[in-house]
Amino acid sequence: MGDELVRVGWNWARGAPGPTWALIRSETGEVVGFGGGVEQRRGDWELWCVLAPLAWRDWPSAVQCAREVVRALVKDWKARRMTLFVREGFAGGALVAGRLGFGCYGRSPDQPGYLTFARSHRGWLK
Who's near 65: CB < 8 A, 6+ residues apart? Predict the structure, then answer.
């Protein structure tokens, strides 16, 4: 998780810059990831996450956690549009984004080495 966390560049001493959730392995209580959202403009959110290496058995829980984050941002934080970035070549991240209803809009002009995904809340998650 270290390299990705450093790339985020926020002052974590003051806490995350928006609502944040943790992905915790239920058997051990180990934190294997965390993420959340940052409101860029009213109703326009950028989602982020930092994950430890996950075994295949951990991915269903990661997808469910991400689904709940999206639902909470829509319901409790009035998110209308959400954007997230996935490292190029990280097939698992792109698959999760697609399952959450995000469409890929190509390479990010602001985040070299990342793809941009976006969605609006009009369609509820499956």
Answer: 21, 23, 33
DSSP3 helix / strand / coil % (the chain, rounded to 5): 35, 35, 35
Q: Which two tokens stand for residue 60?
A: 């269903």
Give the position of tokens 């976006």. Answer: 118
Looking at domain 2-120, its CATH superfamily turns out to be Gcn5-related N-acetyltransferase (GNAT) (3.40.630.30)
Taking the C-alpha atoms of residue 102 and residue 53, their distance in angstroms, rounded to an integer, is 22
In eight-state DSSP terms, residue 56 is G
Is the pLDDT at 7 greater than 60? The verdict is no
Report whether 38 contacts 21 (CB < 8 A). no
Confidence of residue 10 (pLDDT cuts 50, 70, 90): low
106: alpha, beta or left, given left = phi > 0 and alpha = psi -120 to 50?
left
Predicted structure pTM score: 0.79
